[in-house]
């Protein structure tokens, strides 16, 4: 049985779904046997959750029932076109903010609100993301009927198996159809990913007995491609998920550099709350954990879909092109 079908037929809330095709892993859960407002130090099983981008206020859930499964379902459905679209901020204000940036890097985000005639089904959105070829991490937190947070993200904050840990640095964007050379030769994109690589290495190194730095490569989604570098290490005794999240979130890929100064700028110019956008979401247990970075994400509120995207502003950024990048990043939600 496809786990999305199982969730759809369940009456219990919350409903939780995670799918990682690269790991051939699908898991879903329903109900809340136990709830924490922070990462539990000693989880009694696999717990699922996320946190607010700025405040760090978290919600982790031990489901009443959990199932693991396979990807089996084909999906055919047409989506109605929205009645309206509102960008926060609008293009003029977003470009004005981009031009005002003086720090080495600041990630400016946008919230795009689509309103539809009928109430949205979050599970259908996840099915459509899968059909579109989103292959990083597909996820859904359906908190109650008509209210959910969903996404299809290419980025992990980290994966942990025992004391073995892996993280990635991702930055720089081009349309998926562009040649690899555009990213690899772009000084602006090379500088953007360099900030993230240095941050991940600097933050992980003190937590690890050893840390390996992989080669810089290209990672692709159905609509865009990015520069990426992997880091793999062995954690020191006593280092757990709380320490990893505190050190790694947010990376310069979602905040900027220097981190604290960039976050102050973001808080002063973005006219909306990021909420779980760009923050860690995933699962944690004693033995292993996988927390993704909730980019390419959206919030469902009844008939409204709030889609989030951000672009890194560095020296050499052209605001018009960065706005176009935001449009590329939300394409996976243009389902009509």
The named CATH superfamily: Anthranilate synthase
Radius of gyration: 19 Å
Largest sheet: 10 strands, antiparallel
What is the CATH C level class, in words?
A: Alpha Beta
Name the overall outline: globular
Would you give the CATH topology?
A: Anthranilate synthase
Strand percentage lies at 35-45%
Briefly characterize the structure:
The protein is built from eight helices and 20 strands. With 336 residues, the protein is of the alpha+beta class. The protein starts with a helix and ends in a 7-residue tail after the last helix.
How are the elements arranged and paired?
Elements: H1 3-9, E1 15-20, E2 25-30, E3 34-36, E4 47-51, E5 58-62, E6 65-69, E7 84-88, H2 91-99, E8 105-115, H3 122-131, E9 137-144, E10 147-153, E11 156-161, E12 164-175, H4 180-185, H5 187-204, E13 208-213, E14 217-220, E15 224-235, H6 241-248, E16 256-257, H7 259-269, E17 280-284, E18 288-293, E19 297-301, E20 304-314, H8 319-329
Antiparallel strand pairs: 1-2, 1-9, 2-6, 3-5, 4-5, 4-17, 7-8, 8-16, 8-20, 9-10, 10-19, 11-12, 11-18, 12-15, 13-15, 14-15, 17-18, 19-20
